[in-house]
Structures are given as C-alpha cells and as structure tokens.
Amino acid sequence: MRYWRDDYFKTLRDITADATKWPEWADYADFCLEYERGLRPQAFTTLERFIRALEGAPFPERRRFVSWLMTTSDGTRGQHMAVPHPLRLRIVEPTLVEWTAVEPKCPEPHRWLGGYEHLKSALELDETDEVARRKLVVCILGSVGYSTHERPSGYVGNPQQDLASLVEAEGLLQGLPNEDERRQWASEIQEERVLIQQYLRKE
Asked: Are 112 and 159 spatial neighbours (Cβ–Cβ below 8 Å)?
C-alpha cells in the first residue's frame, strides 16, 4: 500500500496534469503517470527516451523545461520523484550551469543550483528573490547544524565562523514578508547560537 506516501504521488499527479499542456513533454508526463501507478521499470524506460530527446534539444528548449520543472516541483513532497537522479544529472544540472554562462545576470539558475555560493549569487542579482533567500537561510542553518550536531561531545567546524554565519542568516530574515516564518527561523538561529556559546565557554 502507498497511502503513507500519498502526498508524494499527488506531486506526480499534479505535475502530470501540468506537463500534458506541452506535447513535446509527453514522454515526461507519461513517466510521471507510470511512476505514480507503480510501473517503475516502464516509467524509467519512458524517462530515458525523454532524456535522450531533450539532450539533443537547443538550449532555449531545455531551459524552458528545466525552469518549469524546478518551479513546479520546488518545495513539494516527492520532489525527488519528479526530478529523479538521471534527469537531474543529464538535463537539469547541465542546463542550469549552461544557463549561468548564457545569461550571467539571471538569478534563476543560481537559485535552482543551490548551495551557498549560488544562492548568494542569486540574491546579489535580485535581492527580492524570496525563494533564494529562504533557501540560503536553510543552507546556512544546515551548515551550522552540522557543526553542532555532535554537541556536547564535540564540535565539527569553526565556531567563530558559524557565529558569523548566524548573523548573516538573521540579516536575511529581514527580507522575508511572513512574520511567523521569520519568528520560527529566528528561534532556530538562537538555539544554534546558544549551543556554540556553550561550547566556547567550555574551551
């Protein structure tokens, strides 16, 4: 039974419905439909056909698909099913990297590539990009959380650098319009700061 992952499969159903609007993406829509129905081997055969066709497509066509896919799937549960590894490795990532070179002043490819440097670049190019801002806050908290995850037995990383990163994350919160969201992340930032300060006091 798949009921425990129904929200994952809902993502596939929703993306299927949207993808069918573009005939040239029919194989991708069929992949999602077959995957959602539990026909995994058949689905990945269909996906391979779609990838091979798109690999030979002009950059604007690949960019249009990647932009649609990342925008549609971002933040959904089951995103890894909508953007499986072969598609990410052979289409999404190469197209995003090419996009940064073709349109160096466009923040979108940096937003989807993720990671600290790319997210910083996205915000430098467009400080109103709320998606990149949120992702950067999460990125910083994830990095600091990795440093503190072995507390109190040890510390992985540089505590002073991590404290500076938390200050940066606090600054990023000012550009987010949702007060509840800001409050929640401010609380997480403070929790990490307390862990670091406790560690430093024992040094």
From this structure: no
